[in-house]
């Protein structure tokens, strides 16, 4: 009997599983850019727990295991900043990242303060860029975060 993936709101009780998954998922990004000091790999459990309390987060579970997550919050300008969309390597290429992105957009779209969705990724992260463009995001800015990493900011209207 197969199990299906379920998506639900994340809470403080999910922080440890999310952090472990984040460490696993960002290894490939760190390798791509030759930088293992990127924030997702250095974030503490306390910082993550505080981030979860400030904003909204979703997890995708396969049975009791967190296999994907995304989080974000709305700032004072009405920008829903979506961050750290992660999918376990063995679960990639099955549409789970797109499902999570759609779900967090739906959540923020119910807030009348939300005017736009915004996220960012590294300039070499072709899979991420492809997904975001497919979902209607357009590049609006770039930022040189280091000698090997340029961050691409993408957004779309809420």
Structure description:
The chain contains five helices and seven strands; from the N terminus they run E-H-H-H-E-E-E-H-E-H-E-E. With 158 residues, the chain is α+β, with helices and mostly antiparallel strands. It has a single domain, classed as Gcn5-related N-acetyltransferase (GNAT) (Aminopeptidase, 3-Layer(aba) Sandwich). It has a seven-stranded mixed β-sheet, sandwiched between helices. It is globular.
How much beta, percentage-wise? 25-35%
* Architecture (CATH level 2) name: 3-Layer(aba) Sandwich
Q: N- to C-terminal separation?
A: 39 Å
Helix and strand composition category: alpha+beta
Largest beta-sheet details: 7 strands, mixed
Instruction: Give average pLDDT, whole number.
Output: 94
Order of helices and strands: EHHHEEEHEHEE
Number of E-type strands: 7
Overall spatial form:
globular
Q: CATH first level: which class?
A: Alpha Beta
Query: Which percent bin holds the helix content?
Result: 25-40%
Classify the fold: give the CATH topology.
Aminopeptidase
Number of helices: 5
- Gyration radius, to the nearest Å? 15 Å
Uncertain ranges: none
Major sheet strand order:
1-2-3-4-5-7-6
- What number of domains? 1
CATH homologous superfamily?
Gcn5-related N-acetyltransferase (GNAT)
